[in-house]
Predict the 3D structure of the following.
Amino acid sequence: MLEGKVVLVTGAGGGIGRDFALAMAAAGAKVVVNDLGTSLKGEGASSAPAEQVVKQIRAAGGAALANADSVADWASANRIVQAALDSYGRLDAVVNNAGILRDRFFFNMSVEEWRAVIDVHLNGSFYVARAAAPHFKAQESGAYIHMTSTSGLVGNLGQANYAAAKLGIVGLSKSIALDMAKYRVRSNCIAPFAWSRMIGSIPTETPDQQARVAKLKSMETAKIAPLAVYLASDAARDVTGMIFAVRANQIFLMAQNRPLRSVHREGGWTPETLAWHAMPALRAHFYALERSQDVFSWDPF
Ligand SMILES: NC(=O)c1ccc[n+]([C@@H]2O[C@H](COP(=O)([O-])OP(=O)(O)OC[C@H]3O[C@@H](n4cnc5c(N)ncnc54)[C@H](O)[C@@H]3O)[C@@H](O)[C@H]2O)c1
């Protein structure tokens, strides 16, 4: 489905991104495999993970090149996009997948932990997308795929930095879809559920924990890739501004915010009338303080 196309995947040295790169190449794309080769927390760097994935693609007869620049800096994000243009002369799809975690309860989260996560996820997604935008605009085609998370879409404990970044990415994607529709450029989000090092630190001491982790392991990283390949392809030419979730063999189209219910009072509202009239009327539609696992409460299949 991607014959003749060039696809850039960030954070493609491991986890979900590696399967994206392998699947894009198997579908015929030339792939820029970007990965800083850093730890889960974003400490250290190595070109080895990206090079390893490139080796794997070439061994299978595909075309790929490795890039170890960070997405979290405007100049180096431009180098990632430039690598595609220099080597392959074009760029057709960008997958913003690179990510790190610095989990901490909000009341203990440091400014450094906040910034590091916003820099890689939200700023990094903007930098790489923005660096590719002039080329997409000039060629009047292009596809963006951004990784979001139900930590932002629904909620999760101890991830204020990550949730804010991932929901920010949803706004970024929708804005790109709106701003670039006239150039036939598309932008969509995927919220994956997959067993990777990002969720691989769950303890497995008790039989209960072991059973839970066995189920989580059925959410293989490779299960996310078919949707990404499809969204990068011309078959998805009329799909833009959407948010999908993937959990093993399930694919969800996620809701987007719309007004749920409204109240109106002739002459306007006072704090008092809000308390005894507006809030009781709206309360039926309030949301429970749910986390991702409360909403996705059944086993993956
Ligand atoms: N695994 C899940 O269940 C899950 C759930 C929701 C969202 N996601 C999102 O999916 C994406 C992939 O996650 P994963 O689970 O495969 O994690 P992962 O840790 O296995 O992969 C992330 C990759 O990004 C790279 N990276 C980190 N900082 C970078 C930088 N500044 N520049 C370039 N590369 C960098 C890392 O080296 C790593 O190889 C992330 O955006 C993550 O937030 C994953």
